[in-house]
Amino acid sequence: MKKRTKKLLSVTSQRKQRATDKSFLVLFFKKELLLFVCLASPAYAATPRTTPTRDVDVTYKVPVAGGRDMAILQRLRFSASLHRQRVDLPTSGNWMMLDYVTHRMTLVRDESRELVDLPAPDSATQPGAGYAFVGTAQVAGLACTEWRTRDTRGEQTVACYTDDGVLLRARGDRGVLMEAVDVGYRPQGAEVFALPQGYTRQLPAQ
């Protein structure tokens, strides 16, 4: 009886973890997908550089829907030599790694020692949407150029990029979706983006 109860609690715990991961992935794809822009961006005469040209470590403030003056912090690190990007999710021990070369995205769960392979988004813009120059701004002490485009849901979004391809802010009709609060240009070691060895690979949460 105790074994059966223990097994049931284990299964319930796993289901809760999958539900939590799924909710964060929904947030990730709806708001932070702009971080992955340019995987397959269409080429236009007036197109911003949307991939960092050098190693960078950025912390973003992401407003929480329905929460007055509430926000979560999201960290992104990019390696120009490896063409890899890591995004640490709000939950401790959960992070995403995107490989621009293989076009694969992996969710890493350190606590449960699991890897979930996911297909990387083809692009964060609608095919043919293009970019329209809006103006210039300053975010986190850095200058950036604002461009109007459309996100994966077809909604208009204004994204502000530095000349070297770092996304500093994204805003939609309802306000700011994400905004950089700290940007550090410093070398990012290969170990930051390496997937852990010995972890169990799982199918994406349904």
User: CATH H-level name... which superfamily?
Assistant: Lipoprotein localisation LolA/LolB/LppX
> Fraction of residues in helices?
10-25%
Main beta sheet, described?
Answer: 12 strands, mixed
Spans of 5+ residues with little confidence (pLDDT < 50)? 5-13, 16-45, 124-128
What's the N-to-C terminus distance? 30 Å
Using the CA coordinates, give the radius of gyration.
18 Å
Number of helices: 1
Into which percentage range does the β-strand content fall?
35-45%
Total number of distinct structural domains: 1
Strand tally is 12
The strands making up the biggest β-sheet line up spatially as 7-8-9-10-11-1-2-3-4-5-6-12
What would you call the shape?
globular
CATH class, please?
Answer: Mainly Beta
Q: Give the ordered list of helices and strands.
A: HEEEEEEEEEEEE
CATH fold group: outer membrane lipoprotein receptor (LolB), chain A
Mean pLDDT: 78
Overall SS class: mainly beta
Second CATH tier, the architecture = Clam
